[in-house]
Design goal:
- The complex is a heterotrimer of chains A (431), B (121) and C (477).
- With 431 residues, chain A is an alpha/beta fold.
- Chain A is built from eight helices and 26 strands.
- Chain A has three domains: 2-121 and 259-329, 3-Layer(bba) Sandwich (FAD/NAD(P)-binding domain), CATH 3.50.50; 124-256, FAD/NAD(P)-binding domain; 338-422, no CATH class.
- In chain A, strand 13 (214-220) and strand 14 (227-232) form a beta hairpin.
- The longest helix of chain A has 21 residues, at 305-325.
- Chain B has two domains: 2-46, no CATH class; 53-114, CPE0013-like (CPE0013-like fold), CATH 3.10.530.
- Helices cover 17% and strands 37% of the residues of chain B.
- Chain B has two helices and ten strands.
- Chain B has helices at residues 35-46, 79-87; strands at residues 2-7, 16-22, 25-30, 49-50, 53-59, 65-70, 74-75, 90-92, 100-102, 112-114.
- The longest helix of chain B is centred in the middle third of the chain and has 12 residues, at 35-46.
- The termini of chain B are far apart.
- Chain C has 477 residues and is α+β, with helices and mostly antiparallel strands.
- Chain C contains twelve helices and 23 strands.
- In chain C, the strands form five sheets. In chain C, strands 1, 2, 9, 10, 11, 12, 19 and 20 form an eight-stranded mixed sheet that branches. In chain C, strands 13, 15, 16, 17 and 18 form a five-stranded antiparallel sheet that branches. A four-stranded mixed sheet of chain C has the order 6-7-5-14.
- In chain C, a hairpin with a 6-residue loop joins strand 19 (320-323) and strand 20 (330-334).
- In chain C, helix 2 crosses helix 8 (340-357) and helix 10 packs across helix 12.
- The longest helix of chain C has 20 residues, at 60-79.
- Classes of the chains: A alpha/beta (431), B alpha+beta (121), C alpha+beta (477).
- At the A-C interface, strand 5, strand 6, helix 3, helix 4 and strand 9 of A face helix 7, strand 18, helix 9, helix 12 and strand 23 of C.
């Protein structure tokens, strides 16, 4: 059994972990260890071979692997130690990591600071309780993507996709290009809420029908999927019996949601937010457990990896401050909670810990529906301190609001900072 | 006069664009909030282009596939042909990001380049 | 070559019959139409080892339930299968229910069930804080327990094979010819000669029996649907919770599983199709509503997966374990609905005895080994043990299933054991890889690779559950 001590342990070598580790190195942390369960760094980006990454962060349009390489290359150049093919089994509340791999065996790593960057997992058929049989041919979109893009195998030939999540749309195109027939994409909600670009370039380009307000109510097939029943849903999202239609197919792909992967966080007793399913964090990306930071999809599911990178840089910097100065300087005695109010599903960070914000304070949030022409207001103890207008907001597009330092002067008397949607000039909050 | 509707994909707003034609030439473009939208509409209607991303088999590599892309966007209607031509490409490890694995795919003048590294097995 | 006995069906009944017969100097084969052990009712039931108060006194069910419960601890130990005697509670919500429980109690005493006790509302709440506040009392049976039914069957078959039984998967019986001596079974893999036959064909029990013109009973499939909840809910209850029983059966129970999940179910609906094991929306809803009556805090959002199984409900109302009257040497062991799992070790014993009476010579082997080679469960080992294991075999350092912490070493072992895993679901049943929160999202590509490598087959030929359940349709590009 190997026991080591490091200054910073990073759990996860995807874009979040990589950016955080690089930032820590930039800030003078020498002893860093990245723990990654795959055979290479880069995380989920390695299988996201499509375009569209890096527009914000690099000002270029890159594919997933190219975006990852920008960071992997730096990690290699900086000589930041990584353990690949290594699975973290446990994180204790006092920052001792138990990990395992074939060459070292069991590893016990004591870290001064830990950065959680484990990403997320996909919601399953089981969790949705889709009735029917259990044949081969049911995949979550990410697993199908791995088979096609990393291993070189086709999951099926006649495909129905449930969920118009980005991964589902990307796979609709990918599989069509590999000569499969994607019969339709079904979306439970009456809107797609996804990046329009994906609808156009993945569905419209290939004449793949998008059925809004539809879901799959049954799966047929003894050994392999033989078909699914598709039905329209009503305003309560309940299937309408009379609209049921059997669609013959041999594959059902599910793109029905991502869930931050926080089993390790739970084991370590780290406080989680019930809505995001990720750790409660402050603007420094520190969790409620001292010395444990989190960034990327493990905190909340992102749409753009560019935001993940920025968030992870913050985490890396904060972790460095913590390691070098032991206690974060400039902390408030009492944290100010952020509260998602009308029309807002969640806000990250969930609490504000620092007294000063010389570069302003960024609040990331998601709305709970599609709204047009709205005002987003930030209120401090009921008083509006800032507002922005948006032409259109949707749950599938994370929003960010930057509060200038001057606005935050009155934070002490706040109690809480709420973010809410206010009626636009055209009236009517609901779409 | 013929007409066509498009959703602009240049920025997240997604303006609904209305284009009218006089025969094969564009007569008018409306619905866009910025110049990029009209440029997009023009290109989409006259010569739509797309970047193609796919994978190519690698012999002797640490992984069986290398992800690739067309270095620039290629005509949308040639995507299928390009996929067919790329199908026959077999790369050999080591592959470096940016390596040209197929030149001038389908006579478009655009190369197919690797988007990741694949070291030798 | 003529087998002394051919056992039809490798569910938990056939498995224990085969294992029991492997104690003797007999040539035995175990035939299974599917690609693996336990693919019928055995893999889709409540996984309860019943105390035995429920089965009507004097029936074969009651006798074999109690005997099976007695034998289970030793059987589980020998086969290396976890078994937990957590006890069970039958809940009463009214005075009328209490009367029903009284009858169960009396029946249980007559059946010889140890430790039965009636509990007050307070005692029930003390034992199960999360149980509904409307409960007025309960019947407590300390000898009830939980086990993994398919692990048990797999263990029994592996042990049987190790002791000389020929296990033949994908070998469905299509017809049986009575010969002058014994039988010829016409199977999917050719003809097999056997002196005796034990029919343990579960849902198809009457179909097999008709092959020797024995139409003395029918088997009706009765579907039961289940919901399985996340391990975080595993401590919601500590015993097996039953609602008051009705004519249709024991009702929707709520129980921890031996692996730490929470299980609710089953429903009870007769279905016409012997192969219909699909879940239904109304069925799952019914499970949820009924479960909430016993444990109000159960939440749908914690569901990890759902499944359905078919009970082989006999027209006679009791187990049918007897020599056929139409064919000498043909023995039925069918209609094994609840408490079939519990009774299985006892059924094995009983069937062997019946075969002996039929003239089969039962000469004990002196090299019979009841102990199955222990299965390694990496996640349960202490750190030092994990390290020592990896030192011996590095494959145990490669965690393949993250959710259940299953290593490559365990997966490879499950493939190469006698009656080993030959497909994805078979690996899943033996190792739990794919049974966690992500339901195989992460580990499936890896397990597929390992199967292809270990079985020397192309990846495209790896199946989910044998036959044509290929996972992938071809190589891309």
């Amino acid at each position: 059994m190997r026991a080591t001590e490091v200054d910073l342990a990073v759990i996860g070598g995807g874009p979040a972990g990589l950016a955080a580790a690089l930032e820590a190195r930039k800030n003078g942390i020498g002893s860093i260890l990245i723990l990654e369960r795959e055979r290479e760094l880069g995380g989920i980006l390695q299988q996201c071979i499509h375009n569209g990454f890096g527009l914000h962060y690099f000002g270029e349009e890159l594919t997933g692997p190219e975006y990852a390489w920008r960071f992997v290359e730096q990690v290699e150049k900086q000589g930041i130690p990584c353990k690949l093919n290594t699975m973290v089994l446990h994180l204790s509340s006092d920052r001792v990591i138990t990990a395992v791999n074939s060459t070292d065996g069991l590893l016990k790593i004591k870290a001064k600071a830990v950065i959680l960057a484990m990403g997320c997992r996909e919601r399953t058929r089981g969790a949705l309780s889709i009735p029917g049989s259990r044949p081969a041919g049911i995949f979550t979109a990410g697993t199908a993507q791995r088979f096609v893009n990393m291993e070189g195998y086709l999951p099926g030939r006649k495909i129905v996709i449930l969920g118009s999540g980005d991964i589902g749309l990307i796979m609709a195109r990918r599989l069509t290009l590999e000569d499969a027939e994607v019969r339709m994409v079904c979306e439970l909600l009456p809107y797609s809420g996804r990046l329009t670009r994906n609808i156009v370039q993945c569905l419209e380009d290939y004449n793949i029908p998008l059925r809004l307000s539809h879901t799959v109510t049954n799966i047929y097939g003894k050994n392999r999927v033989e078909g699914v029943t598709v039905a329209e849903v009503d305003s309560n999202r309940q299937p309408i019996r009379e609209t049921e239609e059997v669609v013959p197919c041999d594959t059902l792909l599910l793109s029905v949601g991502l869930i931050p992967e926080n089993e390790l966080s739970k084991d370590a007793g780290i406080l989680l937010d019930r809505i995001t399913s990720g750790p409660v964090v402050g603007e420094t990306m520190e969790t409620c457990t001292e010395g444990v930071f989190a960034c990327g999809n493990v905190v909340h599911v992102h749409d753009l990896v560019d935001y993940v990178t920025r968030e992870s840089i913050t985490a890396g910097r904060s972790a460095s401050d913590y390691i070098l100065h032991h206690k974060e300087t400039g902390r408030r005695k009492e944290f100010v909670r952020t509260v998602p109010a009308d029309g807002i599903r969640y806000v990250v960070p969930q609490q504000i810990c620092l007294r000063e914000h010389p570069e302003g304070l960024k609040l990331f949030f998601r709305v709970d529906g599609i709204y047009r022409d709205v005002r987003i207001a930030v209120k401090c103890g009921g008083q509006e301190i800032c507002s922005v207008r948006r032409q259109k907001v949707a749950p599938g597009e994370m929003e960010v609001l930057t509060l200038k330092p001057e606005l935050l002067k009155g934070l002490d008397s706040c109690g809480s900072l709420s973010v809410e949607l206010v009626k636009g000039k055209e009236g009517g909050l609901r779409p | 006069m013929k007409g066509r509707e498009l959703t602009c994909i240049v920025c997240p707003i997604g303006c609904r664009l209305h284009i009218t034609f006089d025969g094969d030439t564009i007569n008018s473009i409306s619905g866009n909030r910025c110049k990029r939208g009209s440029a997009y509409a023009r290109e989409e209607c006259t010569a739509p282009k797309r970047v193609l991303t796919t994978t190519v088999r690698v012999g002797g590599g640490a992984c069986p596939l290398v992800s690739v892309k067309t270095e620039k966007a290629v005509p949308k209607q040639m995507i299928r042909q390009c996929m067919d031509e790329i199908h026959y490409v077999q790369a050999t490890a080591p592959v470096r990001i940016g390596d040209i694995l197929l030149q001038n795919v389908c006579g478009t003048g655009v190369d197919i380049v690797a988007t990741r590294n694949v070291p030798q097995a | 070559m003529v087998y002394d006995a051919a056992v039809i069906g490798a569910g938990v009944v056939g498995a224990f019959v085969a294992r029991e017969l492997s104690r003797y100097r007999l040539k035995v084969c175990l035939l299974e139409k599917e690609s693996d052990v336990a693919m019928g009712t055995t893999k889709a039931n409540s996984a309860i080892v019943h105390a035995g108060y429920d089965a009507k006194h004097g029936t074969l069910k009651s006798i074999l339930n109690v005997r099976g419960n007695e034998l289970m601890e030793q059987a589980a130990r020998e086969l290396g299968v976890p078994f937990k005697r957590i006890g069970s509670l039958v809940l009463a919500f009214s005075g009328e229910d209490r009367t029903t429980l009284e009858h169960l109690y009396q029946n249980g005493i007559r059946n010889g069930v140890p430790g039965l006790r009636m509990l007050s509302a307070e005692e029930t709440a003390a034992m199960e804080p999360n149980v509904s506040g409307t409960v007025v009392g309960a019947l407590y049976a300390p000898t009830a327990g939980i086990i993994c039914p398919y692990e048990l069957a797999i263990g029994a078959v592996e042990n049987a094979v190790r002791n000389g039984v020929d296990f033949k998967p994908e070998c469905g019986v299509l017809g049986i010819r009575k010969e002058k001596e014994g039988f010829t079974l016409v199977t999917e893999k050719g003809e097999i000669r056997a002196s005796c036959i034990v029919n343990a064909a579960g849902i198809y029990g009457d179909v097999i029996s008709e092959m020797v013109q024995d139409k003395s009973f029918t088997i009706r499939p009765r579907k039961g649907e289940y919901l399985l909840f996340d391990k975080s809910q595993g401590n919601t209850v500590h015993t097996v919770l039953f609602p008051p029983p009705t004519k249709m059966g024991k009702g929707v129970l709520v129980t921890p599983t031996v692996d730490g999940n929470l299980l609710a179910g089953p429903t009870a609906v007769d279905v016409p199709d012997r192969d219909d094991v699909g879940t239904t929306a109304p069925g799952l809803e019914h499970v949820m509503e009924s479960a909430k009556k016993s444990v109000p805090d159960i939440r749908f959002r914690d569901v990890v997966t759902s499944f359905a199984g078919l009970r082989a409900t006999p027209s006679t109302g009791d187990f049918i374990i007897e020599a056929s009257r139409t064919a000498k040497g043909f023995l039925n062991a069918v209609g094994i609905e609840s408490p079939g799992l519990t009774a299985a070790p006892a059924i094995g014993e009983y069937v062997a005895g019946l075969l002996g009476k039929e003239g089969l010579p039962l000469v004990p082997k002196n090299d019979f080994d009841p102990i199955r080679k222990p299965v390694i469960r990496f996640r349960e080992l202490a750190d030092e043990e994990k390290q020592a294991l990896i030192n011996r075999n590095p494959l145990y350092g490669n965690v393949v299933c993250r959710c259940e912490t299953v290593t490559e070493g365990e997966i490879v072992d499950s493939i190469h054991r006698p009656a080993g895993a030959g497909n994805l679901d078979a690996v899943k049943r033996r190792t739990r890889a794919g049974m966690g929160r992500c339901q195989g999202g992460f580990c499936t590509p890896r397990v597929v690779s390992i199967l292809a490598r270990e079985l020397h087959i192309p990846v495209e030929e790896v199946t989910k559950k044998g036959k044509e359940s290929n996972l992938l349709v071809g190589r891309k590009g």
